[in-house]
Specification:
By secondary structure, the chain is of the alpha+beta class. The chain has two domains: about 180 residues, GAF domain (Beta-Lactamase, 2-Layer Sandwich); about 140 residues, 2-Layer Sandwich (Heat Shock Protein 90), CATH 3.30.565. About 45% of the residues lie in helices and about 20% in strands. The chain has ten helices and 13 strands. The strands form three sheets. It has a six-stranded antiparallel sheet, with helices on both faces. Strands 8-10-11-13-12 form a five-stranded mixed sheet, with helices on one face. The longest helix is centred in the middle third of the chain and has 61 residues. The chain is elongated, with a radius of gyration of 37 Å.
């Protein structure tokens, strides 16, 4: 007659009775080693090793803890309703990663998977409840234990230990196996969740890059249309205004071009970006010679880089127009340097006729000059201009991050 505590246990065991006896010193050492293994497995799982490395480690440690010749970790394949051996120890070559067993309720592993109840079969040769998988028969397995491996929202599979030696798996072995399965299941759930988050992030980044690429293409179309419109008119002022607008749009488009092909969809290398912007301006300021000095890498938010690019576009264009009125041309320098770790200094200077007496950018009526003043304010920077014995000089220091 079975007592009430036996009825409550979820373990499905063979009908062969086991006779408890006093724990020998060897048995006590085995239990202590099992606790050490669970602690070791928990530490290793927290370190988030590669997935297959974690599975192989678990299979090896579980087999050691139960002193079983075989252990395997099986992943459930819902489309086939079978369990694939993903990792294991003791098995013949060609089993791990290839062999499968049935996952239906007539299979010990399938029963554990679908019911969540552990299964102990201490005498597979006399087993009447389940069929014995061919894989176990081929390896001469005489006894086995199966417990479910939980995953993220759905079971991952089954953890199983097998032995071809006589003896019986008992409640202490099952407790150890269930403990190992719980640790591995939590690690699997964590890795599956991280993989989902990484996949979502990659899809998001891909979408952002595609958007940036399309914005860049659209801006190029607009700039091209303005350029064509400038060619279709003979009014010098209209031509100048359209070309200036086209240049500004191209400057913004260049930033989106960098965003579309960079690993970081929010920041770009300021030095690389400004070099391309100034390359585009070189033809517009001819016959003046444009020089750029900027070394290393300065990562900055794309929105701030665009504003700096627009300021350079205006100041360099103005220098190209007014610094050398004799039309013979001259040098225009742009230098970019890092200030400590949180700011960047940008300087534009020439050797031309210099600024007019009493020049005040904030009171200028020119659109480009007013635009520079507005962008400087938006960046939280300060623009300084100084009269020189020869030429004009502008310098502004921009925080890498908005304050």
């Amino acid at each position: 007659m079975t007592n009430s505590s036996d009825k409550e246990t979820p373990v499905v065991e063979s009908n062969t009775a086991s006779h408890p006896s006093d724990l020998s010193r060897r048995a006590l050492n085995v239990r202590l080693r099992q606790q050490e293994i669970l602690a070791e497995l928990g530490v290793q799982a927290l370190q988030n090793p590669p997935f297959l490395v974690l599975l192989d480690l678990t299979a090896r440690l579980v087999a050691e803890g139960i002193e079983a010749e075989y252990c395997k970790i099986m992943e459930y394949l819902p489309a086939e309703n079978r369990l694939l051996v993903r990792a294991g120890v003791g098995w013949n070559e060609g089993v791990v990663g290839v062999a499968t067993v049935g996952a239906d309720l007539a299979s010990p592993a399938g029963f554990a998977l679908h019911t969540g109840r552990p299964v102990i079969s201490n005498h597979l040769g006399n087993e009447q409840r389940f069929r014995t998988p061919e894989l176990l028969i081929e390896h001469g397995i005489r006894r086995a234990m199966n417990v479910i491996l939980k995953g993220d929202n759905s079971p991952f599979g089954v953890l199983e230990v097998d032995s071809k030696s006589p003896g019986e798996f008992g409640k202490h072995d099952l407790a150890f196996l269930q403990g190992a399965a719980n640790i591995l299941g939590m690690a699997i759930e964590q890795q599956q969740s991280q993989r989902k988050l990484q996949d979502a992030l990659e899809r998001h980044q891909l979408l952002i890059k595609e958007v940036n690429h399309r914005v860049k293409n659209s801006l190029q179309v607009v700039a091209g249309m303005l350029h064509l419109q400038a060619k279709a008119t003979t009014n010098p002022e209209v031509i100048a205004s359209l070309n200036e607008a086209s240049s500004r749009i191209s400057t913004v488009g260049r930033a989106y071009d960098h965003l579309a092909y960079t690993a970081d969809y929010e920041a770009i290398d300021l030095i690389d970006y400004l070099r391309v912007v100034l390359d585009d301006l070189a033809g517009a300021v001819t016959p003046n010679k444009l020089h750029f000095e900027g070394a290393g890498t300065i990562e900055i938010g794309a929105d701030r880089a665009m504003l700096i690019g627009l300021i350079l576009n205006e100041l360099v264009t103005n220098a190209g127009k007014y610094a050398y009125p004799e039309k013979t041309g001259g040098p225009i320098w742009v230098t970019v340097t890092r200030v400590d770790n949180d700011a960047v200094r940008v300087s534009i200077y020439d050797e031309g006729v210099g600024l007019p007496p009493g020049f005040d950018m904030t009171k200028s009526k020119r659109l480009g000059t007013r635009l520079v003043a507005a962008l400087i304010q938006q960046l939280g920077a300060e623009l300084g201009s100084r009269p020189a014995t020869r030429g004009a000089s502008f310098t502004f220091v921009v925080p890498l991050k908005p304050k």
